[in-house]
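Before the break, one more example. Copy the sequence into your notebook; we will annotate it together after we see the structure.
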Amino acid sequence: MTALPARRSRTTPSARASKTCPAKPKPYFAPNQIKKRNADWGPAEVTRKFNEAQLAFIRRVSDAEKPWMQVKEHAGFGVAQELIDALVAGCIDPKEGHVVVLG
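Here is what the structure looks like once it is written out:
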């Protein structure tokens, strides 16, 4: 039995990529989504659902037994620049929320 020669793929790299890569992401713009939901559900239901979600969020972040963020207050432009540099470098703990008071 003779082995068949290997066949070369005739697809280009971009053709192969289009077969293996997920669909191109679509941008998300909140005002467009709200407009869509207003049309789907009506303004009263959108407001009700938003308020319900907002209250659940407030309850979650206000739980002193299980804090999800530690808020740290800082003062001055110099500290603000240091925080920005640390954030860009990936050195800020995601559980820390930083507030900078200027002036």
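The longest strand covers residues 70-75. Strands lie at 70-75, 96-101. Try to locate both features in your own notes.
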